[in-house]
Amino acid sequence: MKNTFGNNLTVTLFGESHGDFIGAVLDGVSPGIKIDRENIDKRLSQRRPSGKISTARVERDEYIIASGEYQGYTTGTPLTVLIPNTNKKSGDYEKLAKTPRPSHADYTAECKYHGFQDRRGGGHFSGRITAALVAVGAILESALADKGILIGTHISELHGVADRGFEVYGDDIATLNSSAFPVLREVTYENMMREIEKAAAMGDSVGGILESAVIGLPAGVGEPWFDTLEGMLAHALFSVPAVKGVEFGLGFAFADVYGSEGNDAFRIDGGKIVTETNNSGGINGGISNGMPIIFRTAIKPTPSIFKSQKTVNLEDMSDTTIEISGRHDPAIIHRARTVIDAVTAITLADAFTTRFGTDYLASKD
Amino acid sequence: MKNTFGNNLTVTLFGESHGDFIGAVLDGVSPGIKIDRENIDKRLSQRRPSGKISTARVERDEYIIASGEYQGYTTGTPLTVLIPNTNKKSGDYEKLAKTPRPSHADYTAECKYHGFQDRRGGGHFSGRITAALVAVGAILESALADKGILIGTHISELHGVADRGFEVYGDDIATLNSSAFPVLREVTYENMMREIEKAAAMGDSVGGILESAVIGLPAGVGEPWFDTLEGMLAHALFSVPAVKGVEFGLGFAFADVYGSEGNDAFRIDGGKIVTETNNSGGINGGISNGMPIIFRTAIKPTPSIFKSQKTVNLEDMSDTTIEISGRHDPAIIHRARTVIDAVTAITLADAFTTRFGTDYLASKD
Amino acid sequence: MKNTFGNNLTVTLFGESHGDFIGAVLDGVSPGIKIDRENIDKRLSQRRPSGKISTARVERDEYIIASGEYQGYTTGTPLTVLIPNTNKKSGDYEKLAKTPRPSHADYTAECKYHGFQDRRGGGHFSGRITAALVAVGAILESALADKGILIGTHISELHGVADRGFEVYGDDIATLNSSAFPVLREVTYENMMREIEKAAAMGDSVGGILESAVIGLPAGVGEPWFDTLEGMLAHALFSVPAVKGVEFGLGFAFADVYGSEGNDAFRIDGGKIVTETNNSGGINGGISNGMPIIFRTAIKPTPSIFKSQKTVNLEDMSDTTIEISGRHDPAIIHRARTVIDAVTAITLADAFTTRFGTDYLASKD
Amino acid sequence: MKNTFGNNLTVTLFGESHGDFIGAVLDGVSPGIKIDRENIDKRLSQRRPSGKISTARVERDEYIIASGEYQGYTTGTPLTVLIPNTNKKSGDYEKLAKTPRPSHADYTAECKYHGFQDRRGGGHFSGRITAALVAVGAILESALADKGILIGTHISELHGVADRGFEVYGDDIATLNSSAFPVLREVTYENMMREIEKAAAMGDSVGGILESAVIGLPAGVGEPWFDTLEGMLAHALFSVPAVKGVEFGLGFAFADVYGSEGNDAFRIDGGKIVTETNNSGGINGGISNGMPIIFRTAIKPTPSIFKSQKTVNLEDMSDTTIEISGRHDPAIIHRARTVIDAVTAITLADAFTTRFGTDYLASKD
User: Fold this and answer.
1) ipTM, 2 dp
2) A346 closest CA partner among A24, A2, A21, A14
3) Which partner for B82 in A2, B23, B353, C30 could form a disulfide, CB atoms 3.0-4.6 Å apart?
4) Residue C56 has what pLDDT?
5) In a 3-state reduction of DSSP, which class is residue B115?
6) Residue D325 class from Cβ within 10 Å (0-12 exposed, 13-18 middle, 19+ buried)?
């Protein structure tokens, strides 16, 4: 399905960095979801570059809900968000055509689209496209929150600097979601910022690890094979540019423990079934077990750096170098986090709609 | 799509551990692929438990190609593999109904299927179901090999014991694919075996990390969003029981490097474009770049152990303990590897068929 | 999706006439549906050739529910029906390879599968494959009936002989569903039988029109675009071999009426909204309006006839003739009707599951 | 998939009559297709109401290709057409909320969307939405024409007035496609126009039958089950508002012929295999046989008429009447024809892309 994702609720993504609009279509959304424009604005602003750690390009992210909304609620018909591209600078994109940037999609796009791709600003591969995902994700995020399901993410590691892990789930989520640079300990912020500034000073960039939690998801959502919660979430998460790894619960650390250490014992807590540990990250056999869903995503350093890099000239097939001018983010991990929350909301809303039908996510008011 | 995966070429999986048959249907397969029964047998035997490190249950894995084959070649119509369940012991499955095994799917299945699930031997969640995936994957694996595309996996870590990484891609693959316990250094085998035996002696189990390589994939396969090569592979890989993490190239290690270190410089090598490093794991912007695809999957220790574990009694909602009798594998990572190769073959064959049409994978002879 | 159909509930079909098994996989089915084996048997026997008006080949239609059933109920995991091919005669299929039968799929299969197709008995194109559809359809038909939704079909026309139309919906359905040759007037049966015998005597065949009704479907099921009830039903119906036309309500007769005649006026009847006429066939804007769904399907005469026919020799590209020996049905319309009821049940069960979630069709007992 | 249709090439439709934009996203389109804006304009103008036989609302159908085009060619990434809704009159839509129009979607929309639907101008059910389909269909139509595949439609019947059938396929198509009211005989035009004027004078409306031909489609395209050419085309065609029937080749007339009359004999013609008749409409076993694809669609009279009609008041559940003011088309069949050509182009382009891969439809220049 290429640019469409989901089963009963789908999202279709389109646009290029320098086209007229980027956008996303949500289909299969419940009628009667209150459109939470405040959350859309908050999430778009978190994704938007701002301040010294980000690119200088000012993107206003005005958006239009072009269909599927009436009098403040979803109609149940396809909901389309359009975001106009207003600040398009015509760079020297002919150069990119000849000398692909290392670890960018310039070369693979050439192989796939045979030169017909729109190279301006990264075209369809631009991180800017994620703004549309963030907008529709924000709508579903609010709808899920209405059902008691909260999604939140913090930067758990950045170039060697680690944050503490999730502890008290509920409290953290609210705070994280209103922060532009979400961490769980104040000192982490300062240490990470120092790393980012150091990288910026060198004309370089840093990556890191994001840790996400989903609270309040009832048990019994997901499928045993293929459309496991892990599989669907990972499918969506790997669409977020720069994501190169996804793990649930203990994840790769399972390699070092015994089964007796890794297993999550059940116990009764206040009449409810819970597990003593949550090494499974809230998922067994592909299906939610009622504990928080916990996953981590690896974010590579943004490949756009000021340093000179080796590349090739596609025209004469010779070795050469490239210096990428323009605006570069030394870190995009805090912005990527917003996209991760968005695709998580989309994936869960789809799993819910598949499980409980197309009216399930309607607001109660 | 639940138990169906893929776009232009799909696989549908069905069956329970103690039903009459488990099976898989491949649809959209090219006509004229030579059915490589030797490879099916080899791969099934690698997946099958055998020897002291595995469960005592002898599974013969006879299989029937019930449709889609004629005179040794695929017909182009749905190809169905059926595997009869011949060795079904009727255990005390009523007990499981009341006391779910920690980190198994017993509890989540109950939440999803309301008691109607077949609990015998894990039912639809049984690892045995993967035998059908392995069989159809083996057919596609041979078809891809015919096109010069090789898939192979080694155990890169097992309870703290590490193998060396891939170095010389081509040579390793052939050797790995004929080994029942694939590692790249002989000493690794002994050290890992010692860990497994230690765990077995304690009635416990161990997990690890598998590293896979895909060699010979042309550049230009995959999609920019959602159906990225990473997203499609991860979607399939997380179906493999026990997989809790997937990373490509440097993966989570990207958190510790600068962009200048993580970027893969291009250069010309023998008239071909290659990258000096392969930190991207062969994928940029979701699309293959012509370098080997490299990914790692985290395998949790099998949750079936002999040790007594805490659980709950679902009937009276009280705390209790469980001791799981029967056959347990102290390690299943070497068997999981075969399933990983199978779903990789399926995912790549799908990506190819989508890109090049439904006749693409036909044999040349 | 080729051999898979449906959104939230899917059916996957496989098999060839002379393979080991034909079969179908239902995925996304609610857990807890009582398997109505009596209905499966009844429906399979209606589809099966018998008596003088049908082919002499005796097909016993034994079937195995190979997965997805436990203790008489659906488990919620994929339900697979397998039907062994027991009565395989090895005809002269090499001849078919050279001289395609007119209006059969021999030639188009050759163009699509390049000679790799299994030609024995029509292979994957054999009407026999529909037995698997009938079996899984019968399970869903009973589940829908439990919810008050009834599906029934009569032969409304056969080679110029017309039956009366539906009048009293509820009563007719029960009677129709227990008849091997369903008509609404007794005299129709005799007249149609006479036509069939006449055709048989000439070594020829006849077609006709089937009219189907769905009673009890609540209003609000279906989608405005693409997955309209009409579109989904038609998609499935055109899979039934020999179907060459589908119309809803007045259908093609709309060409002769004014809007004021064709529109269905609303009125209140016993506190419920009904329409005075049902020219729309129970569907407006792709969505059910609570009135019976009424549609008709055109069934072409079976192309297998004893008369000599002109065809070509594919080897030397010359004109030639063919006489098709073996068993031929002079009419298959009464058997096709069972397949139409089956795909209707599948399509509606899918629309329901999409609308109301995956637990919706579970039995109440 | 609700508002998304297709397998390897998909179209997603969105918008409401009085929203900001309606639009469609084509995904999976080959890179390098020349965007034929002339054809888009021609096709949009044919769909647009004009002259005395159509509604007085002037729709300019300006459109924006918001993504997926660069320098006049498709990029291969999702192509989005947006059409602004510029001429929105705020009618008395509250009234519609209470008294649903007969044979419109007002009542079924209420049942499905619980009052959240946008009722203005028919909302998502408005025929206006088809403008977006027409635009993207026109792009694919030109791409198919580049490969020698032509699509054309004439009005074969209008309220009892019949046109002649297709005879010389190639010549007709070109002429039909440049006509705003496509018929094959001049006298048909006058007779049909007279019927339309008569209906208009009475405040009533008329329907009819459209006959379409696809010329130049190679043999071997389509699938045996479910995604048969007939099934895929019918699925798309029933999305076109007012379509209530679809038949291929002889269609419903098969009910009156013997197999020996209905079968299409093969013969060699100029070294090519053709059939003497084309009663199958170019499709056997769901797959194209190289002859023209011929199908007919039944178009119901537009339900918007000036005459007073019986309906109900949804608020107090009482009987009442409605007079629909505003603009009404006495006939929309000539406009519906453009939408039918569009969805035919989309469906065939999808079947081709599935068969031959994603690069297949690229222009040769």
Assistant:
1) 0.96
2) A24
3) B23
4) 46
5) coil
6) exposed
- Residue A283 has, within 13 A of its CA and on its CB side, a CA count of 34
Nearest to A254 among B236, B257, B301 (CB): B301
Taking the C-alpha atoms of residue A287 and residue B18, their distance in angstroms, rounded to an integer, is: 21
Per-residue pLDDT of chain B (365 residues; tens, 9 = 90+): 799 999 999 999 999 999 999 999 999 999 999 999 999 999 999 998 865 565 545 556 799 999 999 999 999 999 999 999 986 666 667 666 789 999 999 999 999 999 999 999 899 999 999 999 999 999 999 999 999 999 999 999 999 999 999 976 666 888 899 999 999 999 999 999 999 999 999 999 999 999 999 999 999 999 999 999 999 999 999 999 999 999 999 999 999 999 999 999 999 999 999 999 999 999 999 999 999 999 999 999 999 999 999 999 999 999 999 998 877 889 999 999 999 999 999 999 999 999 999 888 988 65
Both tokens of B198, joined, read 């230690």
* CA–CA gap between residue A264 and residue A253 (Å, rounded): 15
Q: Which two tokens stand for residue A8?
A: 């009963």
**C190-197 contacts at long range (C-beta below 8 A, 24 or more positions apart):** C191/C161, C192/C155, C192/C158, C192/C159, C192/C161, C192/C163, C193/C53, C195/C158, C195/C159, C195/C160, C195/C161, C196/C53, C196/C158, C196/C159, C196/C330, C196/C331, C197/C52, C197/C53, C197/C330
Judged by a CB distance cut-off of 8 A, whether residue C198 touches chain D is no
d(CA C279, CA C276): 9
CA-based nearest residue in chain B for residue C125: B77
From C20, C77, C116, residue closest to B73, measured CB to CB? C116
How many residues does this entry show for chain C?
Answer: 365
Distance CA D7, CA D352 (A): 10
Phi, then psi, of C181 in degrees rounded to 5: -140, 85
At position B190, the amino acid (one-letter code) is: E
Contact B206, A258 (CB under 8 A): yes
CA–chain centroid gap for A57, Å, is 20
pTM for the whole structure: 0.96
Q: Do C354 and A224 touch (CB under 8 A)?
A: no
Give me the residue from D13, D28, D116 closest to A2, CB to CB: D28
